[in-house]
Amino acid sequence: MGINWDHFTKDLDSMPEVILGTVTIYALIILYTRIFGLKSFSKMTGFDFLNTVAIGNLLAMSAATSSPSLFVGALLIGIFYLFNYLITWFSFNSKTVEEVIDNSPMLLMRNGKVLYKNLEKTKVTENELRGKLREANVLRLSEVRAVILETTGDVSVIHTSENKEPEDYIMEDVRRS
Fold first, then answer.
1. What is the pLDDT of residue 3?
2. Which of 17, 29, 143, 162 lies 20 to 30 Å (CA to CA) from residue 53?
3. CATH 3.30.240.20 region(s) of the chain?
4. CATH code that applies to domain 106-171
């Protein structure tokens, strides 16, 4: 069984276009980020995360496969930036739009007690919860004030050895059930 060297070398003649395309798309992403702001790459909402994944995918496809073409890829990336900006703008300026578009964070634990109904609603397993508690260096469940599944899918663990409750501002948008 011989090695098919053509598999490794067949597209070498397209390398200048791949390099030029990658540099061009990369420069456009920097320009778009300067225009639309750094929040374009945040994970604050599901839409922000979707935007980041879509842009990364389009960058890779345009640069490496030329499908979509460099021009179409640049245009699509610009449209994703614009959509993300508009969604953010409308959410910022309208509480109703924000409520329709964004999920609310969900409380998974409160004052050392696991909220099993909320684990079931969010499809978070107890093993995943325990893992997040360990990541946050929790030593005792009694130290846990709140565990919150954020809108991005991240888990926040608020804990302290003192008998203090989180301020209302921190917990204001968190669904209890």
1. 84
2. 17
3. 106-171
4. 3.30.240.20
